[in-house]
Amino acid sequence: MGNASRPFRRIAYFLCLLSVLLLTEGKKPVKPKCPAWCTCTKDNALCENARSIPRSVPPDVISLSFVRSAFTKIPEGSFLLTPSLQLLLFTSNTFDVISDDAFMGLPHLEYLSLANNNLQSLPKDIFKGLDSLTNVDLRGNAFNCDCKLKWLVEWLGSTNATVEDIYCESPPVYKKRKINSLSPNEFDCIITEFEVYQSLPYQSLSVDTFSYMNDEHVVIAQPFTGKCIFLEWDHVEVMFRNYDNITGTSTVVCKPIVIESQLYVIVAQLFGGSHIYKRDIFANKFIKIQDIEILKIRKPNDIETFRIAEDWYFVVADSSKAGFTTVYKWNGNGFYSHQSLHAWYRDTDVEYLEISGKPHLILSSSSQRPVIYQWNKGTNEFVKRFDIQDMEDAYAVKHFKVKEDVYICLTRFIGDSKVMKWGGSAFLDLQRMPSRGSMVFQPLQINNYQYAILGSDYSFTQVYYWDAEKAKFVKFQELNVQAPRSFIHVSIDRRDFLFASSFKGTTLIYKHVIVDLSA
Questions:
Q1: Residue 7 phi/psi, 5° resolution?
Q2: Which residues of 116-142 are buried (b: 16+ CB within 10 A; e: fewer)?
Q3: CA–CA separation, 349 vs 325, rounded Å?
Q4: Beta strands 495-502 and 484-492: pairing type?
Q5: Which end of the chain has the smaller Cβ count within 10 Å, N or C?
Q6: Residues 482 and 456: beta-carbon distance below 8 Å
Q7: Closest CA to 98 of 135, 131, 138
Q8: What is the pLDDT of residue 9?
Q9: What gap in Å lies between CA 156 and CA 318, rounded to an integer?
Q10: Who contacts 237 (Cβ-Cβ below 8 Å, separation ≥6)?
């Protein structure tokens, strides 16, 4: 029905009320089943100061009104015994609860008035099944326009029923706003959180994920057992399970790299040298194919793999006084030493990234500021470019991108960790995070959500969420991880997980949960 018919509906509404009052004035209820606090006629019932929803109203009434009721709840299925109702009014009541299915079983209901009932919200399915509704009166309530009321905004935009203008009373940002004019897009009702999904009963250092043979896998370095533990997703049990391992000594990094469908794993160890393994699909096991020169790699601390043009590389950050951070290149049969960088600087971390489309490495060191190297196409080697100023004692540097902008997270064990943004010729300070005992500040993206996770050996791990409007990170959640060393995102089976390694406790797997507050 169009707007032109509103006056006629209003007249009909008031005539209906008048008829109830006139017909009941001075008369006793026609049917003895009518409650004492209601006045009933053949077609109408008027209940004032009612103590509850009457269950004995004549089933053929078409109009039922409640004024200044003493009850505060409208339970589910309250009107199943009055299926003929066409007009239902609640006026000047105070309701704490209206059940989702309070008005179920009223297929003929045309007019519903919940005006002046001190309502702050309404259940999402309150109008479900009321297919004959032509008028709804919700005026005079103190609506709280939060996510729980988003459905009402959506319903107002799709219903054919006439709804008089109603207004928000809270929160302050929406106070006195007309609900009929709000858009569902104005409600930010999607939140996320990390909740513990699975615990692995061992300590760990590095955690990495890789795709191999059409499936996702995880490899974890266990320093005390000296193993690389390989996990796969159990689609039946819906959890991660161990399917293989590489046994070594004091393993600190297990870095997978897949070249032309062949899986290799670089295993960095503090003692006994570092090695490269190949996955033999016929023997269904890992086979050692190469040792990494011990004179250059004495105390490996981090490994990065990358590809430039058609060539594959990996680089090992060496933290010993006499070691060399070294780049290795794949030659078709194995990896050979391609370039030595940063001799005797005790590098603790290496990060590969592209800046303005050009390959770069950032080396972190306990003895100097982070150093940036840029790839030279002419020599096919990295060339030192500059230091990152005012960032001594940065333990690690990790990068992320927001649209086309490049950022880095720099970790400090003592002092403030930082977020910096590439400004065209240098990285510029953007944000400082207080950190104590931090050895990992890991940015990671899960779908459209950008996070940065700052671990600590002495307090809770802080999860930060990227606020696009503020263009910086804001505190989001705390995680209880003992001495975390790495975090990585694993996406599998339409689920998103966060692996958190622990040097002193159990390795934890968190599930990334998306919650719709309007649901």
A1: -55, -40
A2: bbebbebbbebbeebeebbbbbbebbe
A3: 10
A4: antiparallel
A5: C
A6: no
A7: 138
A8: 44
A9: 64
A10: none
Give the long-range contacts of residues 460-467, CB within 8 A, separation 24 or more.
461/500, 462/433, 463/194, 464/433, 465/192, 466/402
Burial 252-279 (b: 16+ CB within 10 A, else e): bbbbbbeeeeebbbbbbbbeebbbbbbb
Q: Can you list the pairs that 280-288 forms with residues at least 24 positions away whose Cβ atoms lie under 8 Å?
A: 281/213, 285/244, 286/244, 286/246
| pLDDT reported for residue 470 | 94
Nearest residue to 253 via CA among 263, 239, 266: 266
Structure tokens at 65: 């009104």
Per-residue model confidence (pLDDT) at position 23: 41
Which residue has 């793999």 as its token pair?
Answer: 305
**Mind spelling out the 3-state secondary structure of 287-306?**
EEEEEECCCCCCCEEEEEEE
Indicate the pTM of the whole model. Answer: 0.81
Residue type at position 235: H
Under 8 Å CB-to-CB from 429, ≥6 apart: which residues?
A: 390, 418, 420
Name beta bridge partners: 31.
none
**CB-CB contact of 353 with 388 (8 Å):** no
Half-sphere exposure of 97 toward its Cβ, with a 13 Å CA cutoff?
8
Give me the residue label for tokens 């590809």. 307
Q: Which residue has the tokens 């049969």?
A: 333
439, 485 Cβ separation under 8 angstroms: yes
**Secondary element (H or E) of residue 21:** helix 6-24
End-to-end CA distance of the chain: 30
* Residue 37: predicted pLDDT: 64
CA–CA separation, 474 vs 452, rounded Å? 9
According to the model, what pLDDT value does residue 45 have? 78
- Specify the pLDDT at position 496: 98
Do the Cβ atoms of 266 and 287 come closer than 8 Å?
no
Bridge partners, 318 (sequence order):
300
Residue with structure tokens 């370039």?
339
- The C-alpha R_g of the chain, in whole angstroms, comes to 34
How many whole angstroms separate alpha carbon 8 and alpha carbon 387?
79
3-state secondary structure (DSSP) of residue 114: coil
Residue type, 21: L
β pairing state of 239-247 and 251-259: unpaired
Q: What does the alpha-carbon distance between residue 385 and residue 396 come to, in Å, rounded to a whole number?
A: 18
pLDDT of residue 11: 38
Q: Let me know: does 54 contact 30? Beta carbons within 8 Å.
A: no
Which regions of the chain are under pLDDT 70?
A: 1-37, 42, 55-59, 342-344
pLDDT at position 57, please? Answer: 66
Do 241 and 234 contact (CB within 8 A), yes or no? Answer: yes
